Amino acid sequence: MIQGLFSHILVALSGSDASIHAAKYAIIMAKLYHSRLSAVYVVDTATIKQLTLSRIFIQEESLEYEQSLEANGQRYLTFVEELARAKGVKIERELRKGAVYTEVLSVAEEKKVDLIVLGGWEKDRNSRDIISHAHREIMVSAKCSVLVVKEPSIDQLYKQL
Questions:
Q1: Which of 4, 16, 140, 141 is the most buried (most CB within 10 A)?
Q2: How much is the mean pLDDT over the chain?
Q3: What is the tens place of the pLDDT at every residue in 83-122?
Q4: Would you tell me how many other CB atoms lie within 10 Å of the CB of residue 81?
Q5: What's the CATH superfamily of 8-160?
């Protein structure tokens, strides 16, 4: 095994099943490579702001939606923290607000990560949705390697760890 290949891994959570699979994959990698692990969930306030400016949301709806996303983000971060703890992996968690790709890239640079782990696209999602756009921007602009997890048997691999 190559030591130091991935000294710090960042997994980006979106609340999708694919991002939970990515978190399990990152936990496995962190355990096998003895890497630091961080998780980030971004409340997409940039899109909320666009929806408000386009008058799709009124101000009160925007605030309620943002609070709902923030609560969801905390739940997902806690869930992933519990998954990591169950496998003896310590994880740093962070909730950010802003544009998804900007914040993920900022965390990656601030923490000097070697690898960003993203969930693959789900079958029922449009390839042009917001998450896909954020993934593309992260892959194009990241200064470190980016891994898109599409492992179909990740649950079994996680259980075996």
A1: 16
A2: 89
A3: 999 999 999 999 999 999 999 999 999 999 999 999 986 6
A4: 17
A5: HUPs (3.40.50.620)
Given the DSSP bridges, would you call strands 115-119 and 8-13 parallel, antiparallel or unpaired? parallel
Residue 160, amino acid: Q
**Which amino acid would we find at residue 38?**
S
> What does the alpha-carbon distance between residue 133 and residue 101 come to, in Å, rounded to a whole number?
8
pLDDT, position 120: 85
Q: Please spell the DSSP secondary structure of the chain, one letter per residue.
A: --TTSSSEEEEEE-SSHHHHHHHHHHHHHHHHHT-EEEEEEEEEHHHHHHHHHTTSS-HHHHHHHHHHHHHHHHHHHHHHHHHHHHTT--EEEEEEEE-HHHHHHHHHHHHT-SEEEEEPPPTTS-TTSHHHHHHHHHHHH-SSEEEEE--TTHHHHHHH-
How far apart, in Å, do the first and last CA atoms of the chain sit?
Answer: 16
Predicted TM-score of the model (pTM): 0.89
Say whether pLDDT at 140 is over 90: yes
| Nearest partner of 77 among 111, 108, 40, 129, judged by Cα | 40
Angle, alpha carbons 29-117-38 (nearest 5°): 75
CA within 13 Å, CB half, 83? 25
Token pair 């962070």 is at which residue? 94
